[in-house]
Amino acid sequence: MRAAYDVAIAGGGIVGAACAAECAAAGLSVVVVEPGPVGGGATAAGMGHIVVMDDSPAQIALTRYSRQLWIDLARELPADVEYLPCGTTWVAADEEELAEVRRKKQVYDALGVKAEVLGPRELADLEPHLRAGLAGGLFVADDSVIYPPSAARFLLERAVERGASVRLGERAAALTPEGIRLPNGTLLAAGTTVNATGAWAPELTPGIQVRKRKGHLVITDRYPGFVHTALIELGYLKSAHSNTGDSVAFNAQPRCTGQVLIGSSRQYGAEDTAVDPPMLERMLHRAREYMPGLGELTAIRAWTGFRAATPDKLPLIGPCPDQPRCYLATGHEGLGITTSLATGRLLADQLTGRDSAIPRAPYLPGRQPEEHG
Length: 373
Ligand SMILES: Cc1cc2nc3c(=O)[nH]c(=O)nc-3n(C[C@H](O)[C@H](O)[C@H](O)COP(=O)(O)OP(=O)(O)OC[C@H]3O[C@@H](n4cnc5c(N)ncnc54)[C@H](O)[C@@H]3O)c2cc1C
Description:
With 373 residues, the chain is of the alpha/beta class.
């Protein structure tokens, strides 16, 4: 019997939406199952920074590729996606971090990623609200920010325009080699299933190495021009790398609305969605250390979300080793907004047998992950 769909995707976050759009564009018949609002999971909680990251060669390959896909798509994005090509400023607090700026610059230069080293005065001119006495920075011009839930909606609408079906208000109870099983027993028959349920992925694919990593964010009232670029302290790398312990790092983003989005924290083992006041205060204290004036702004909302973390900090994109018709598209940790488009493209490449623009092996679920300390 022929399956009703080529691909059945569980999860309508930005990753599931990108997978749906790419599979539909490749001529595959697609159904997406999403119990909540489109993009209502980590996608709504995230910062929306589209950023090239160089923690590992595979990470830089994926983020650079995906950032280019965002740049290519930018002209078609509707206004509510709030695409802001503001660039990233990596902030170096001291000489040690300035050495990291130079190392990063070399890596970016070698890959053709535009990056400019900033001295203390140039940094102050670019972002006058940063505190005095910082050592410098690295400005990466082609990074941007978006409003992720609108981007997820846009991608899913694209998929629908290309013939995909979306079943909102329904959840997958099981992913089987025959398709997605709904709680009432209905089978959405499909040649391939895709688990794109983010931090919930282990519920449908037990045994995969995906852990919830809680994060806090705060958004202010409107202060147009308070920050101009997406700001990240270089200490962020230490915080994002750690596989243990709670951490915070200074991260501030301008929004099209004039609001400032402030992050972020990282916690394993915290499964509760509630805002944790001591963690929030720790995060805001860090932010004020870099930008004292933030303490004068009015914050209007704080919230949390869960990143889907893997041991080697790379997503899982491809078939489960023991169930070749059940694919994974999860484990994007703090980069799933950035890497969603490349994930969709790599998944569609695998399902259609096309070549890919970058090697796919580092993201295959069957890889032997190296734990990054
Ligand atoms: C605080 C924070 C800051 C971040 N900042 C950034 C950033 O600046 N840049 C960046 O690139 N990334 C960032 N991220 C990461 C990014 O938000 C995520 O990697 C990305 O949103 C993951 O998308 P997703 O579609 O995989 O998951 P989700 O958006 O969580 O979507 C999963 C979907 O699956 C659905 N689902 C769950 N169970 C089922 C089921 N049984 N059946 C069907 N559907 C189901 C859920 O309802 C949900 O909608 C941040 C994350 C956090 C938490």
